[in-house]
Amino acid sequence: MSNTETGTHVSYLQHKGKYKGILSWLLTTDHKKIGLLYLYCIIVFFFVAAILGVLMRIELIAPGETIMGPQTYNGMFTIHGIIMIFIIVIPALPAVFGNFFLPILIGAKDVAFPKLNLFSFYLFLIGAIFGVLSQFIGGGAPDTGWTFYVPYSAESSTNVIYALIAAFILGFSSILTGLNFIVTIHRMRAPGMGWFRMPLFPWSLYATAWIQVLATPIIGITLLMVIAERVLKIGFFDPALGGDPVLFQHLFWIYSHPAVYIMILPGMGIVTEIFPTFSQKPVFGYTAILLSSLAIAFVGYFVWGHHMFTAGISYGSRWFFSFLTFIVAVPSAIKVFNWVSTMYGGSIDLKPPLLYAISFIFLFMIGGFTGLTLGALAANVQVHDTAFVVAHFHYIIFGGMGFAFFAGMHYWYPKMFGRMYSNKLANIAWGILFTGFNVLYFPLFIIGLQGMPRRYFDYLPQFQTGHVISTVGAFILFTGLILMVYNFVYHIKRGAIAPANPWKGVTLEWQIPSPPSHENFDEIPVITTDPYIFGTSTENKQK
Amino acid sequence: MNMSIQENHNDHIDSETGKLGMWIFLFTELFLFGGLFLVYAVFRAKYSEDFHSAARELNAFIGTMNTVFLLVSSMTVAMAITAIQKNQKKLAMFLVSVTLLLAALFMMNKFFEWSHKFEFKLYPGSEVLKNLPRGELLFFGLYFMMTGLHALHVLIGMILLSINFIKIKAGKVNQAHYLLLENSGLYWHLVDLIWIFLFPLLYLIT
Amino acid sequence: MFTGASNLADGVDRTFVFIFSVAFIFIIGITAFMIYTVIHFSRKKGNEAKQFTGSVKLEIIWTVIPLILVMMMFYYGWVGFAPMRKVPADAMKITAIGRMWQWEFDYGNGMKSTELVLPVNKPVRVALKSEDVNHSLFIPAFRVKEDVIPGYDNYLWFVPTFIGEYEILCTEYCGLLHSSMLSKARILNQADYDNWFNDFKTKVSQPEPDGYLLLRNNGCIACHSLDGSKLVGPSLKGLFGNERIVTSGNSQITVKADEKYILNSIYDPDSQVVSGFSKGLMKSYKELLKESDIKSIAAYLKTLN
Amino acid sequence: MKKEETHISSYTSHAIVLIVLLFLTAISVLVTGWHFGPFSVAVALIIASIKVRTVITHFMHMKFESLFMKLMVTGVFVLFALVIIITFIDYYLR
Ligand code: HEA
Ligand code: HEA
Ligand code: CUA
Ligand SMILES: [Cu+2]
User: Fold this and answer.
1) Nearest-CA distance from D27 to chain A in Å?
2) Which residues of chain D have a CB within 8 Å of the CB of B30?
3) Which residues contact C245 (CB under 8 A, 6 or more apart)?
């Protein structure tokens, strides 16, 4: 049906609304445009934070001071962490791909509260600006690490307050996005789309949204308490004011552990869309994948203590948290097995999105198993707060969520912009990126095991080899990323016109023109089958 | 594909959708206070003696009065919704203004209570407070943070209710469309709910 | 990997070995399976996709097997960890004090050492105290680590099993010089230890000079050594009365390190920066040290030449 | 998305609810006079929970909402309780 329409339809990019020019973007309530606004902001911030990462790597190429002093270094990993976590990975997948594709995938014209959606974008922007400002005003870049551990964060003379406010506002933006998605999924599914006919990306967003709504307020209030502590001298956590520093860690991780699943679940959702399309085969174990998302979201709420194993928490809670940490790994395992089985017996087309999705599994496995290492009590004692942790979370965040993001970009780029990128360039960029990634982070596992602590500006000479290899990897990675971004930017105007359905996908976004029109669907589709039906039955999807 | 329809359609969210959104928002509010309750619980367990003696400093009578104000006001908003549903515009306006009045009384009480504390130099960071036993210090910290944040919510609720009053008067909130009033009502009840927990925890456990 | 030097190392290493073995098998296996699938079922070969959608039997298998494996991992971790919280009653008692960027080990009776010196094969319980922010005592070779949190009584214990010198690190971020908060654990045989201990005792029984106490209690020795070695700041040994090359403003000048210079270096460190070191590291101690204090410091520095 | 039928609660029912709530408040104020020792917190919290439940079901019209909504609200409270309990595994066993 889409082919007949490509001639006449007006894409959302050309759509004439109430406002003209730049305002048509800044005041839009179109979920697709808001998604793109997020995308552009996130790329800019990613660039800033990534440069900080590379600078840190250069500093670490040799022991002692190389290009910056300790104060600068400490500020750098703090801002690197804050930007990466609060401004990039937590919002990235829900706010970019969730906004753009959630309504389309469930056959809706928009999210439930379009204005709220725009509002949460502005909250995001304000929060992000606060975050960046904290670098430049007065007391110097905050130097507490992204975890803001009290008492240091209550004492540091740097701009910790700005960073706290930034995280607070960003948290609210994230809550509102989550709220919007839950209501959208409940109320706006196309007729005929029962809960179990919903594609799995929306399902993963649904699980994510609940975490966003129910966990984020805790960090909100915690950060407020730290602010009150600094400004009004009300004691909560700082022992100098009578407070309890371990309680801060509890509250911080009650949010921040579930937050790591906010980061990864939508990423898992994206690759779950990609495997069936490029294998031309229904997803294997639809129900299992769906239930495992919900299980991760639920159990993930109760394992926060594994970040505090050495903080002197009680023996009973140490093994309790360790036990639950291992339980929460099982749903992840289920997903991995279902993904590889989805490919098995298919007709596999190794295009860039699939390449990224497969490397997602590879890197996620490494990140996940090292997570298990961290979750084991005895092993955690050795590797807690070492470079091993740094490698674990870069593998799982950057290698997992980051690669899922790249996979999503390659998968949906034609739909979002109506153009094709160069496959060849994408493959080359992938090769460099993947190599660089492993060269960058793998050595950190080894020096971490040997006892190289994290957040170290300086280090003992025996760790140098690992650091040098790692720094070289950063540059390889850098090259790959630049190439990938170049591929996207160059082809956004010059690429070949994308067909409506370049990958022969069957979910709803492929049934409408590329790029979609302002309201996505001329007529709301009526769903009569399960989401992943390939082959002859494709036509049945549409009424 | 008619644009004007699209734009309007944004303004009129159907009531089930709006209410679901509001409930989810209330959950986040609940967890926002939940963090404070958690801190309270931990400190109480650690310093229960100090908490006992510190709670005695609070005036249970003012607390009880405020509880009554909030409970009654909760009823009046609930009634205002009934009135709107029955299309009794005048009555609805009256009930909303009673609610506002009760809220104002609550805030007044709060104001006197706080200024009384300040007179005795019991404010965050003061010397008197610093010399109290550790648990009492924490108790007062929590007291100011919890009631302060709660008072902020009362204020927001008052603003919402005032908007409702104006809209009812203008006929924008009416028998057919009263989602705004319903949601503001829900919000107001939440403010009440939180107070229902705060009251015994701060004032009664002596 | 690398050898552990305490009784706790085995339990930890066994956990690593088990988890890494499982990980290795799964990662290699699943990756190989993916590569095989991609090649064997390639669309280029004209493969038709088979339209199956799942299998309850398989789901159960790959829920149960990982569940068993992770429970085993949990078990290894727990068993390796449990002894770490069970201190034998006869353990020697030492208190480790963490303060911004320096470790100190209190042997009781005012005997405070900046190194942890211990006899081999004797259990030792280290109580952990912080004077300011969070720190974490980490001795990689012994596989021990616990956070040092103000207001809390945390502890760790171990039995050092080999003679030698081992690194002590701080692994909880504690501000500017977190990465310099290092020390050494020296494990001696019983006789050497006794000698060291007696020496130490006699040294301690002589009262410390005022200047030294000031340097120690204000954390100066975190950055300035007293034995000539270079830390974050220049060593204070051989400083007094000698020529210093300093950058003042934009020019390099040579000054004599007299009492005035020392006072200025402490009150306004950035005005004259010793060549080879950077500005901004040392903060002013104007509020913390009186001029009389600095007199005693200078007097003590004289004795170091 | 059919129009759900609206339930209109009567004024009297609201008034009755209020009386119940005031009554419970009175009880909890009075109860503080008698010393239950460690149980006084528990008693106060139980009464507060009953009050909260009453407000939610009646004033907030939860009794007219769908089963899903009821489950959701219960679930949120249960989740919060679990978080507190799990935190206390640390504090009580220390
Ligand atoms: C996207 C983010 C993300 C995700 C998904 C995870 C997932 C996991 N994480 Fe990670 N973690 C972080 C981000 C993330 N983490 C961050 C940012 C930190 C550091 C915070 C800081 O201090 O700054 C951290 C720190 C961290 C710690 C604390 C380390 C310390 O400071 O001491 C621990 C400890 O238990 C841990 C464990 C785990 C576990 C068990 C999982 C599991 O969910 C992983 C499950 C996955 C698998 C198990 C692999 C796939 C499965 C198979 C291949 C099948 C076969 C499987 C079996 C046989 C079991 N993580
Ligand atoms: C999403 C999460 C994320 C990502 C992607 C990264 C990416 C990188 N990180 Fe970081 N990192 C964190 C999250 C992340 N990090 C967190 C949470 C911490 C903990 C902070 C703390 O301790 O508090 C941390 C800490 C951390 C440390 C440890 C500091 C310490 O403990 O001492 C180091 C050190 O090597 C590091 C390095 C890097 C490097 C080299 C990259 C590189 O991979 C970056 C690669 C990117 C580029 C090289 C740029 C590519 C260029 C483009 C894409 C061009 C775009 C251009 C246009 C649009 C014009 N990071
Ligand atoms: Cu002390 Cu880090
Ligand atoms: Cu975690």
Assistant:
1) 32
2) 76, 80
3) C252, C253, C254, C274, C275
The whole-number pLDDT of residue A64 equals 82
Residue pairs between chains A and D whose CB atoms are closer than 8 Å: 34
Average pLDDT over residues A479-493: 91
Q: Inter-chain contact A381–C23, Cβ cutoff 8 Å?
A: no
**Amino acid type, C47:** N
Where do runs of H (alpha helix) occur along A188-199? Answer: none
Domains within chain A, CATH numbers bracketed: 28-541 (1.20.210.10)
Ligand number nearest CA of A338 is: 1
Please identify, by atom number, the ligand 2 atom nearest to the C-alpha of residue A453. 31
Does the pLDDT at position A3 exceed 70?
no
CATH number, domain at C282?
Answer: 1.10.760.10
**Chain B hits for A220, Cβ within 8 Å:** 32, 35
- Grouping H, G, I as helix, E, B as strand and the rest as coil, residue C54 is coil
Residues in chain B, total = 206
Helix (H, G, I), strand (E, B) or coil at C143: coil
Query: What residues contact residue C45 under an 8 Å CB cut-off, 6+ apart?
Result: none
Domain extent, residue C175, equals 92-204
Report whether CATH 2.40.50.100 matches the domain B2-203: no
Token pair recorded at residue C244: 């210093």
Mean pLDDT of chain A: 88
Tens digits of residue pLDDT in A314-348: 988 999 999 999 999 999 999 999 999 999 888 88
- Could you say which DSSP state residue A399 is in? I
Identify the three-state secondary structure at position B2: coil
Report, as an integer, the average pLDDT of A220-249.
88
**Nearest ligand to residue C169 Cα:** 3
| Cβ atoms < 10 Å from Cβ of B83 | 25
Least confident span in A88-92, A197-201, A525-529, B153-157:
A525-529
pLDDT band, residue C205 (cuts 50/70/90): low
Chains meeting C at 3+ CB pairs closer than 8 A? A
* Cis geometry, peptide bond prior to residue A515 (ω within 30 degrees of 0): yes
- Cα–Cα distances in angstroms (integers) from residue A191 to residues A525, A531, A542, B42, D1, in the given order: 7, 14, 12, 49, 10
pLDDT of residue B13: 66
Q: Return the DSSP state at A282.
A: P
Is C81 touching A (CB cutoff 8 A)? Answer: yes
Beta bridge partners of C246: C253, C274
Using DSSP, state whether C148 is helix, strand or coil.
Answer: strand
Does C74 share its domain with C104? Answer: no
Helix ranges, B170-203 (H): 179-199
**Is the pLDDT reported for residue A152 higher than 80?**
yes
For residues A396 and A364, the answer to whether their CB atoms sit within 8 Å is: yes
Residue among B20, B42, B43 whose CB faces A186 most closely:
B20
